[in-house]
Amino acid sequence: MPTHASQTHVVILGAGVIGLTAAHVLTEGDGSSLFKVTIVARDMPEDLNSQAFASPWAGAHWSPMQADDRLVRWEKYTFDKFWSMIPTGLVRRLPSRIYFGVEDAEKVSAWWRGIVRDFRVFPSDHPFPAEARSGVQFETFSVNPGVYLPWLKSELESRGVTFVRRRLNSLDEACELAGERGAVINATGLGARSLFGVEDTKVYPVRGQTVLVYSPNVTEAVNIFPAGTTKPSEATYVIPRASTPGMVLIGGTYQSNNWDTSLSIPTARGILARAKVLVPALAEPTTRIHAHNVGLRPAREGGPRVEVQSVDVPSEDSLTPELSDASADTKAGLVVHAYGFGSAGYQQSWGAAEEVVRLLKENLPQ
C-alpha cells in the first residue's frame, strides 16, 4: 500500500452532488490508498436549508433534458447506477408519465427511450390533460437529497476523505492546497463565475421554486411540457420523494438569469393550482404543505464544462489573491473542471464523475 506521502492529493472545490460523486468515484477500490482527497466548500451536505448551493433543493429524479452524445452517455451510466441502488432504500423506483404539447411523442422521446425502463407511448385515445397532445409512461427513479447527500458524505468520511468548510477565492489557493504533484477538481457550480482564475461568464442561475407536500396517495411522477420544450419558465411536475413515504415535491419554475431566492407567494399558488389539475390526488384533504423551497440551478451556456486545464501557479495576474508562499517559483497546476449542470446534476452525476476521474488520472504528472 502506498504511504501517505506517496498519495496524490486531490482538492475538490464544492460539496454538491457533483463534487461528492467525483470524490466517491475517485476513492473506489484502491483509490482511497492512491489518493488523499480533501473537499473544500463553503456549504456542506448537512446544510440542507442553505440557498447558496442547488443540491439540497433539486428534484433529484430522472426526467429528459436536452442532450448531446456526451450527455446521453452520462445519463445512461447514471440511470443504471441509481437503478442498481434501489435495493439500498436510498433510491426509489418510480412510475412516471410525461405529457407533451406536440403530437409526436415518439420523436421527442427518441433519444432517451433506451435509458429508462418499461417505456410506452400513450395511444391517441388516452385522456390527455388539456394542454397535452401526446405522452409517454415509463419507470424512472427518485432520490431524496436530504438523505442522499449526508449518506455520500458519510461514505466518503469512512474512506478517509477530509471535509474543510472554507471559501477559496482562486484556483491558485486550491492548487497551493493540493501541493506540487496534486490536482484540483472544480465543482463550484455558480461559484465558477466568481472564482479567480475561472471567472466563467457563461455560468448563469436558473431560479427554481417548489412546494414540498405530504400527499400519501400520490405514487407516480408526472411532468407536462405544454409547448413541447423541456425548459419552460413554468414547469409543472410532481415527484414523490424516496426514503420519506408520502412526501411529494411539486414544481415549479425555470427562470433563467433570475438570482432572487425569496419566496413568491403568487408563484407558489400557481404551482399548486397547476399540479392539482395534473394530479387530482393532490387536492385530497390528506394533502398538507410541508415547506416552500427556492433554489438556483447552476446552468451554463453551451452545457456543462468537464475538461482539463493546466494553470500557472501563482498566476501572473496582479489581482490574484496572494498565496502564503508568495516567493514560490511558477509551476503548473492540474485542474479538472466539472460545473454547469443546471437541472441535471443528479441525473448526470455518476456518468460525469467517471469522466472527471478518467481525465484526472490521464493527466496526472508521471
From TrEMBL:
GO terms for molecular function: D-amino-acid oxidase activity; FAD binding. D-dopa binds at residues 237, 297. Gene3D superfamilies: D-Amino Acid Oxidase, subunit A, domain 2, NAD(P)-binding Rossmann-like Domain. One of its GO terms (biological process) is D-amino acid catabolic process. InterPro entries: D-amino_acid_oxidase_CS, DAO, FAD-dep_OxRdtase. One of its GO terms (cellular component) is cytoplasm. Keywords: FAD, Flavoprotein, Oxidoreductase, Signal. Residues 9-358 form the FAD dependent oxidoreductase domain. Its cofactor is FAD. FAD binds at residue 188. Residues 1-23 form the signal peptide. Belongs to the DAMOX/DASOX family. PANTHER family: D-AMINO ACID OXIDASE, FAD DEPENDENT OXIDOREDUCTASE DOMAIN-CONTAINING PROTEIN. This is Nucleotide-binding domain-containing protein.
